[in-house]
Write a structure and sequence with these properties.
The structure is a single chain. By secondary structure, the chain is α+β, with helices and mostly antiparallel strands. The chain contains 3 helices and 7 strands; from the N terminus they run E-E-H-E-E-E-E-E-H-H.
Length: about 180
């Protein structure tokens, strides 16, 4: 996943989520898709759509379920030719909004945010970027080394081995001794 935050966001206030839930459609325009393509390190993102369903659960958590489809054009790592690919995927998350701190002097409520896959992600604000999970999943699906069909990498041919060793060249530079010097006592 890219290190920078996504240039496309769609925020939903979970405080407004009713018991019936909500279904949202994400369909960025051409300019937003161009920024997303650059963020993903691709040449183009001709199509990207997602359907997100949010539901409130009885235990004050919210479920997030989404399906998405995308067409993306990346540069071949060998020839730099455009390589088209189509992706479909889904994303599922559980969220819980952290309670607001009370003005009265109470001990803080401890929230376990352990690495348990089943435990919900705790949000400090009821505002949720519903585009982030699908974009995260899309970025993980992309081939980091796309190749055009039939293209293989041919390493450059090695230079022929020198006929003479570098040490042989150094040996030629060595000056032969001009007789042995006499030792003085």
């Amino acid at each position: 996943m890219p290190d920078q935050p996504s240039p496309y966001t769609s925020t939903f206030d979970l405080a407004r989520l009713s018991e019936r839930g909500v279904e949202l459609s994400l369909s960025p325009d051409a300019a937003e898709r161009a920024r997303l393509a650059a963020w993903l390190g691709a040449l183009e993102l001709p199509r990207f759509t997602a359907t997100v369903r949010l539901a409130r659960m009885p235990d004050d958590t919210c479920t997030y379920d989404a399906e998405f489809t995308a067409e993306i054009v990346q540069a071949c790592v060998v020839t730099l030719e455009p390589v088209r690919s189509a992706h479909t995927g889904s994303a599922a998350r559980h969220y819980r909004v952290a309670p607001k701190p009370s003005r009265r002097a109470k001990p803080p409520v401890e929230i376990d945010v352990g690495g348990d896959e089943e435990s919900p992600e705790v949000l400090s604000s009821p505002l949720l970027d519903v585009a982030a999970p699908v974009l995260e999943e899309l970025s993980l699906m992309l081939d980091p080394y796309p190749r055009a069909p039939g293209v293989t990498f041919e390493p450059p041919k090695e230079d022929p081995q020198p006929t003479e060793s570098p040490f042989a060249v150094l040996a030629k530079l060595k000056v032969p001794p001009q007789g042995k010097p006499k030792r003085r006592k």
